Amino acid sequence: MATTTSRLLRLLSLLQARRDWPGAVLAERLEVSHRTVRRDVDRLREMGYSIRTTMGPDGGYRLDAGTELPPLLFDDEQVVALTVALQAATVIGAGTEDAALRALTTVRQIMPARLRHRIDQLQFTAVPRPGDGPALPVSPQVLVTLSGAVRAREVLRFDYASPRREGDEPVPPRRVEPHHLVTSHGRWYLVAWDLEHGDWCVFRADRISPRTPAGPRFTPREIPGGSVQDYVSARFKGSDGANTWPCVGTVVLRKPAAAVAPFAGDGTVEDLGPHQCRYTAGSWSWIALAASLNRFDTAVTVISPPQLTEAFAELALRNAATATGQA
To answer: Residue range 22-26: average pLDDT?
Structure first.
């Protein structure tokens, strides 16, 4: 019986690993006859797994989705990955925190003792990045609707709760071609082609209220740059083009590279000796870049470009005005 059970688990693991399995290959992997493979497949079907028999010269089997959720099989690394994902769900802003906790409790209850001990050692607290602010939760149903529209390539209509001033005219529903649903720093965003403005836009999902029914199907456009990750990152940096900061400068800091590197962010640090280093970084404006360099609390020598030197001068005037109460 133990041999049969182990073989069934091995068979299930193989079926989950890829879409189609020729019967002969399964028999070879399991070191059993074709007849035994057929019997084991029938046993898995009785347990609730939807396994289709494929025809052809290499006829075999395919594990399909069924009408009910059968028992799942995870290897040790998958269990660890699942645990990490469920614990981190508290900062993704998807409104699934309670469900994630229940799922984590369920998984822990049924795992073997050796895995439970390993998982219990993996306790951590997911903390949002400083400065991101509290993430507004998004209804899971909204996320499902947005993702479904992306997958179906259907025009989406929705009301968008953007900030408004008193006296502003009501904003009509937006009509977009949804292309990607992304999450970054605890917020969810929809990347879409705005049909009214004829341009790409990034919408915050927590401000979207989808309308029904969905619109007609559309042919997907190519995202600028070809990568949704690069496109969204560029927009967050204030760049309409490549995924780079619009303002990039190089300076020499009177601090060793080892003291600067932990706080360099996406900048680069070059060691110039025990007491100084060259630092290249970017920001959305020259004034913002100059101000950010003051966080290192040391002397700064601008190497390039001249705009950064001018920004330091402007910042000095502003700071002086503030210090004398004349701002």
So the answer is: 90
Q: What's the mean pLDDT in 152-156? A: 95
Q: CB neighbours of 198 closer than 8 A, spacing ≥ 6?
A: none
Question: 3-class secondary structure for the chain?
Answer: CHHHHHHHHHHHHHHHHCCEEEHHHHHHHHCCCHHHHHHHHHHHHHCCCEEEEECCCCCEEEEECCCCCCCCCCCHHHHHHHHHHHHHHHHCCCCCHHHHHHHHHHHHHHCCHHHHHHHHCCCCCCCCCCCCCCCCCCCHHHHHHHHHHHHHCECEEEEECCCCCCCCCCCCCEEEEEEEEEEECCEEEEEEEECCCCEEEEEEHHHEEECCCCCCECCCCCCHHHCHHHHHHHHHCCCCCCCCCCEEEEEEECCCHHHHHHHCCCCEEEECCCCCEEEEEEECCHHHHHHHHHHHCCCEEEEECHHHHHHHHHHHHHHHHHHCCCC
pTM over cut 0.85: no
Lowest mean pLDDT among 47-61, 71-85, 210-224: 71-85
Nearest to 282 by CA among 268, 298, 272: 268
